[in-house]
Amino acid sequence: MKLYVTGRNNQTNEYLSSPVIYYSNNGMIRTNNSFSIYGSSITKPIGIYSGRINKESDLGYIWKWGLLKEIINK
Fold first, then answer.
1. Higher pLDDT, residue 14 or 56
2. pLDDT exceeds cutoff 60 at 11
3. 55: CB partners within 8 A, 6+ apart
4. Beta pairing partners, 51
5. What share of the chain is helix, strand, coil (3-state, %, to 5)?
6. Measured between alpha carbons, how far is residue 49 from residues 19, 36, 62, 73 in Å?
7. Are the beta carbons of 27 and 41 closer than 8 angstroms?
8. Where are the domains of the chain?
């Protein structure tokens, strides 16, 4: 899947095109059905928020960095 769906309760699309970042202060991150543990906090880019699924929904789309890289490199 090339995107995530996330819950977001904002009244407008003021966060359109915002980067989505994963942060873990204990250094744990889930990768491919397993966990990786780093010695300190970790920050990882996830994707770009592109707005809600529809006007009435609290769900929004996050396009993954991998897809964005594919588009840029074409």
1. 56
2. no
3. none
4. 61
5. 10, 50, 40
6. 6, 25, 4, 20
7. yes
8. 3-66
pTM score > 0.70 for this model? no
d(CA 54, CA 71): 24
Decide if pLDDT at 8 tops 70. no
Q: Could you give the angle at the alpha carbon of 18 between the alpha carbons of 12 and 24, nearest 5°?
A: 115
Do the beta carbons of residue 3 and residue 47 sit within 8 Å?
yes
Q: What are phi and psi of 67, to 5 degrees?
A: -65, -40
What sign for the dihedral angle of Cα 66, 37, 26, 9? positive
Displacement of CA 6 from its chain's centroid (Å): 8
Q: Residue type for 66, please?
A: G
What does pLDDT average to over the chain?
Answer: 79
Residue 49, Cβ density class (10 Å: 0-12 exposed, 13-18 middle, ≥19 buried)? buried
